[in-house]
Design brief:
Distance between the termini: 55 Å
CATH class: Mainly Alpha
Order of helices and strands: HHHHHHHHHH
Low-confidence stretches: none
Largest sheet: none
Strand content: under 5%
Shape: globular
Length: 255
């Protein structure tokens, strides 16, 4: 039993997102304890189930009313636990595949669009103001920009240096500093060091923020935070990648 838990814990993403890091990913490990040895349950099927639940949550948001909002908040959390489970299971079984990674990232992007698009409409239905729809649109666009500029930068850098992806992967490698096998002090230190990640406003933060807004029925204030954070991070990442490309080009010329 202990050996299985240890091996499952080793599949947890080392640099996980804020909410995933200490809530949904550990819950996914607990669920995987019972699921990883069931042949009929596969990582890609879990990805599909996660996306299907995310779609149902979006429909619940569109239906409106506090009851539907609370149900949608619960479904969003379940969807995110499953979203953590698929990668863990693939790593545990050693069946990770490029297609599985592609499917996982694609559904992640689409479900964020569905959730916030639905919230924009629900907030409009409550207020009869177009502002929430505009905020949702801006937030979704700049969230997409965060990933798009990374893709553009990777394509340009790889065209200049075919070894660039391998170098980047090596730089991102991080050794675990907490978890099973580490002392209480190391884990407490890790917990507090994880908290600043809430300012990244990535998908893990969305899951928490969106669920809280639905339960508290505070959709428009949450959309203001969503839009402002994505404009900031989208613009910041676009500028940073652009500066890196320019700096690497100048370095290549000097060589």
């Amino acid at each position: 039993m202990k050996d299985k838990i240890t091996r499952l814990w080793a599949t947890k993403t080392k640099d996980d997102e804020w909410w995933s890091s200490f809530v949904t990913a550990p819950l996914a490990i607990a669920a995987n304890y019972f699921a990883v040895d069931v042949p009929a349950i596969t990582p890609n099927r879990i990805t599909a189930a996660s996306f299907a639940i995310a779609v149902v949550a979006s429909i619940g948001i569109l239906a409106g009313g506090l009851g539907w909002f609370v149900a949608a908040a619960v479904l969003i959390q379940i969807s995110h636990v499953l979203d953590c489970m698929d990668g863990q299971m693939a790593r545990y079984r050693k069946v990770s595949s490029p297609f599985g990674s592609y499917l996982d990232r694609l559904t992640d992007q689409v479900q964020v669009t569905l959730w916030f698009g639905a919230v924009g409409y629900a907030a409009y239905a409550q207020s009869l103001s177009a502002v929430p729809v505009f905020l949702a649109m801006i937030g979704i666009a700049f969230y997409g920009l965060r990933g798009y500029v990374k893709y553009i930068a990777l394509e340009i850098e790889t065209s200049l240096d075919p070894d660039y992806p391998a170098k980047l992967a090596q730089q991102r490698h991080r050794e675990p500093s907490a978890g099973l096998g580490f002392g209480a002090t190391a884990n407490v230190k890790w917990f507090f060091c994880e908290q600043p990640k809430i300012l990244d406003f990535d998908e893990g933060v969305f899951v928490f923020m969106l669920s809280a807004a639905l339960i508290l029925d505070q959709l428009t204030p949450m959309l203001w935070i969503f839009a402002a954070s994505q404009v900031f991070w989208g613009a910041q990442k676009a500028w940073r990648h652009g500066m890196n490309i320019d700096a690497n080009r100048k370095l290549s010329i000097q060589k």
